[in-house]
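Good morning N.,

You mentioned wanting to compare the apo and holo forms, so I went ahead and generated the holo version with nicotinamide-adenine-dinucleotide. This is what I fed in:
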Amino acid sequence: MLKNIEGKVLLRSGVEMPGYGFGVYKAHGRELIHAVDYALGCGYRYIDTASFYENEEDLGQALKKCGLPRDQLFVLSKIWPTQFSNPRKALEESLHKLGLERLDGYLLHWPGLNESLRLKTFEYLLEAREKGLIAVAGVSNFLVPHLDELHRHFGIWPDINQIEVHPLFQQKELRKYCREKEIHVVSWSPLGRGHSLALPRIDSIARQVERSPAQVILRWQIQQDLTPIPKSVHEARIRENAQVFDFELDARQMESIDALDLPDHQGRTGKDPMEWPAN
Ligand code: NAD
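and this is what came out, ligand included:
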């Protein structure tokens, strides 16, 4: 289990990545630059963006300003399915906007609905990894059939699958499958986009451990070896979300949160990867 915010996880390809991250979806301009600067000061080292977020240039500015050596940062971006027809161009654009020569992580953001473009794009990611343009080739929102398809074609499993995970939508089967294949799970919207914070059961556990609801949910993720990437642009919340390494949830509290999972994907805040988005 991760011991502190700068702790690393070893991925199946042998690369080490920070086991805790900071999301920047819907943050832009000065707000993003300040949030990233503050987050780096709190110890976050993995920053999660995507071409779809249209903030790679802002993030690039924040990284340039931060003064940390490049090898202490883990910058991850993603390629959107409409970019699958020219993945080389998409990666070049992301690198250019971020002002970087290489990305630490690059993921297919969603599987999309076109199998041959999906495979062609993953093949390009493997090529980019060979060339040293990216360190980790991964995927996001891939379900078991998508992962199996990659394995059938390339004979490998991706290092990372970034999927939606929070108390109301836990994706236990998919996570079990990833664990068996040693695919590391990064959980997006770990706080359920804020919706999970008001659940009475989370509130009650937060009172028991004298922590905030956000800290309880993030701790519940760490104790399951997930890598959460909470997002906030507010200093107090960014700091609070980083302070989750000095307390523990007991087995009963963990089970109580496990039981919040809703049946039939009712807790999903995003879309069904089998149906959306089209390429
Ligand atoms: P999140 O679950 O991190 O929730 C963020 C919201 O919760 C904030 O906007 C804020 O309103 C609230 N919040 C955060 N910390 C809080 C605190 N301590 N107390 C009270 N409220 C707090 O949701 P998200 O931003 O959707 O997801 C996080 C990151 O995951 C994104 O920034 C992005 O990097 C990534 N993501 C990836 C995908 C994907 O398809 N791969 C999809 C969505 C998000």
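The chain has a mean pLDDT of 97.

Happy to go through it together on a call whenever suits you.

Best,
F.
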